[in-house]
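chain and backbone:
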Amino acid sequence: MAEVLLFHHGHGLTDGVREFADALRAVGHDVHVPDLYDGRVFDDLREGLAYARQVGFDAIQERGVATADGLPNGLVYAGFSLGVMAAQQLAQTRPGAKGALLFHSCLPPAELGGPWPPGVRVQIHGMDADPYFADEGDLDAARVLVQETADAELFLYEGDQHLFADRSLPAFREVPAALLTERVVRFLDGIR
């Protein structure tokens, strides 16, 4: 069993993020899902990102990082899009990280304090034509991370949807979301 700290995306803590966490729990993993938006959920991604901008992206990231304080070391850190900022920072800087799951986003490791830590497994998932992932530098950062890190995998799915794994959003795509979930479960089952 792996213990996972999962961060939501720019819409907030949607039912789809909760359902994803429940799917991981159903196969035996312990999943924590903090609400970084204080209960706010936005139907429109632009509105959700405007809220994050108003609060401050750094403040949202700091909220996420702070949620790990009461949890043990040895976690897998996971994030959807906006949530990748906190997940990736924790995976790179918090002692004892077991792995990272980066959905729809990836930052260059140097932006978060240096190279990817040895022995910390990472999976990155995104659609090959997603304008946020493919056109804004995330895919490039993911490819570099995979080239430089022995324990890194990049999974590209055909399509142009950003948050395709959240079944509560119009971007949801059942077939790639099911494949993503299958790969994540296999990843978590391999965590020791």
Q: What stands out?
A: The longest strand covers residues 121-127.
